[in-house]
Amino acid sequence: EVQLVESGGGLVQPGGSLRLYCAASGFTFSSYWMHWVRQVPGKGLVWVSRISSDERISSHADSVKGRLTISRDNAKNTLYLQMDSLKVEDTAVYYCARATSDTRNSLDVWGQGTMVTVSS
Amino acid sequence: QSVLTQPPSASGTPGQRVTISCSGSSSNIGSNSVIWYQQLPGAAPKLLIYRSNQRPSGVPDRFSGSKSGTSASLAISGLQSADEADYYCAAWDDSLNGVVFGGGTKLTVL
Predict the structure, then answer these.
(1) Rounded to an integer, what distance in angstroms lies between the CA atom of residue A110 and that of residue B46?
(2) Residues of B in contact with A45 (CB under 8 A)
(3) Could you tell me if B93 and B85 are in contact, meaning their C-beta atoms sit under 8 angstroms apart?
(4) What is the pLDDT of residues B37-68, one digit of tens each?
């Protein structure tokens, strides 16, 4: 079964750090572009970042640039989001998602999401 | 405020056809394909349309997408109660070098 499972979310103080994990299974992880998308409960989807299948290319939304960093380990079938200098406005459910095999940005497999709460 | 503009709500009765619009600019919809997602309450988003008008396998042909210039539309025909959900459009933005989403449209089946 094709599956993405996020973990690592939780409560953290402003200025703190957190690392999110996304474990992939059921497909050849190293062949797909991967993304992080976040959503404040009750609000809309917001794109965070993406990374190429070979890790060479990554991009981040301006709102998180320099603070949140996407990476991956194809040997471990795992996607990461390193979150530093967290702000209250980073509070959201974070989804990892896979792009289709023939596109870079159409997301056909999503995880269940992990909640990140930034609060003092 | 979202880069792509969608109406906040839409509604229809069972069996009816409804359309949801998505307006952008030359740097996103005008030069890249449009993607549509469906998000049921309490669930992760689901890919509905990609490359502006392509349906992934398993998505009923009641759902169709179109694009013209800097705008796009999602049409749902034969509306069902199970279609009640939030719908989001998205596209790559060449100026922002990132994916941009619409604010979402809440579809109510009356």
Answers:
(1) 8
(2) 37, 39, 45, 88, 90, 101, 104
(3) no
(4) 999 999 999 999 999 999 999 999 999 999 99
